Amino acid sequence: MLIRAKVSGEKIVSPSNSSSPYLKMIQYEIKLIKGSFEKVKDIQYMYTPVFSSLCGVKLDSSNKVQYLLSGNMLSDGKVSVGLCDLVEPWDNLSMSQKKNLNYRYQSGCDCRIATCNSVPCATTEDGECLWTDWLLDNSLSGEQARHFACVKRTDGSCSWYRGGPPPDKDFLDMSDP
């Protein structure tokens, strides 16, 4: 699940059957701007553990910051967000990332990103893009993350594509996914 939202409030909540401080959650009230699938229009709250040691995240709840957030829909219908999810202020995204959200990223849903941590490294199948930001830049937000999208090409393989508007459907060739 991927959404663009503002956080308009927060409060600490506990499961009704527990008094343990380790089970307490922060309930963030969100104002949805845009979402990636039909069910997100009903989301009003996101939950995260109170403690960062339990993967909890701290969001600005002043209703001033827009976020791009990924998370998980739980079986009870609640949405959780944690340190392993994408939590990025909208203004921190590059123009390529913002454009790719509308045009390119969904065409990469069938692709897998293979992380390169040390040399040598290579993809093991056509449906993979080799991510080298960590190796080359020692960063999770290097050139590939900020300016490229891993997308499926017309031949079924996956490759990195520099952001931009979608190609004209009448003029799609082998250099375009």
TrEMBL record:
Any one annotated GO CC term: extracellular matrix
Main location class: secreted
Entries under InterPro entries matching the protein: Netrin_domain, TIMP, TIMP-like_OB-fold, TIMP_C
PROSITE patterns: NTR (PS50189)
Entry keyword set: Disulfide bond, Metalloenzyme inhibitor, Metalloprotease inhibitor, Protease inhibitor, Secreted
Transmembrane segments: none
Keyword Disulfide bond: yes
Disulfide bridge positions per record: C111-C158, C116-C121, C129-C150
Domain NTR: 1-109
GO molecular function, one term: metalloendopeptidase inhibitor activity
GO process terms (BP): negative regulation of membrane protein ectodomain proteolysis; response to cytokine; response to hormone
Protein's UniProt keywords contain Disulfide bond: yes
Family of the protein in this entry: Belongs to the protease inhibitor I35 (TIMP) family.
Subcellular location: Secreted
Name the UniProt record assigns to this protein: Metalloproteinase inhibitor 4
